[in-house]
Amino acid sequence: MEFSTSQYDLISGDQGVRKLVDRFYDLMDEREDVKVLRDLHAKSLRISRDKLYMFLSGWLGGPQLYVEKYGHPRLRARHLPFKITNEERDQWMSCMNQALEEQIEDQLLLSTLKQSLFKVADFMRNAEDAS
Ligand code: HEM
């Protein structure tokens, strides 16, 4: 018997992941204070939306959509073409934290997700801040 509930289920599954990712990229597109982050991305965010949605589906314990389509994520390697310092990481987290706060009421789930996504984002850093 299965008693554990995945984070995927707790954020309402496929629909919840889609909603989170859409809000995240809408914020990235709209917020004046994250222009550095936005400018790293392609003009259209459609492919980014699909890929992050597929990745987070598996990462949260749901269907491994990204792995099935693209293979191992190799996330750090895939981010190497983009300069990621504390500034880019913090802008990414700021949009993600806002999207999470707007959607998730359960405070324990909210802080757990913020912390574990911060670890992934911090791991993407590949350059020092400008002095
Ligand atoms: C730390 C700050 C981060 C920055 C600045 C960043 C930036 C980017 C950029 C510029 C792209 C290329 C997409 C495009 O051109 O539209 C990308 C792709 C992607 N990012 Fe990030 N990212 C960050 C963190 C993360 C984190 C924390 C995750 C996962 C939780 C993530 C997941 C992905 C995925 C799955 C892709 C698609 C990879 C592929 O298949 O090409 N990113 N990211």
The CATH topology is Globin-like
Kindly report the name of the CATH homologous superfamily. Globins
What structural class results from the helix and strand content? mainly alpha
Percentage of helical residues?
55-70%
Please identify the top-level CATH class.
Mainly Alpha
**pLDDT under 50 segments (min length 5)?**
none
Major sheet size, sense and barrel closure:
none
Description:
By secondary structure, the chain is mainly α. The chain has one domain: Globins (Globin-like, Orthogonal Bundle). It is about 65% helix and about 0% strand. The chain has 8 helices and no strands. Helix 2 packs across helix 4, helix 2 packs across helix 7 and helix 7 runs antiparallel to helix 8. The model has no long low-confidence stretch (mean pLDDT about 95). The site of protoporphyrin IX containing FE has 21 residues, from helix 3, helix 4, helix 6, helix 7 and helix 8. This is Hemoglobin-like protein HbO. Keywords: Heme, Iron, Metal-binding, Transport. Pfam families: Bac_globin. InterPro entries: GlbO/GLB3-like, Globin-like_sf, Globin/Proto, Globin_bac-like_CS, Hemoglobin_trunc. One of its GO terms (molecular function) is oxygen binding.
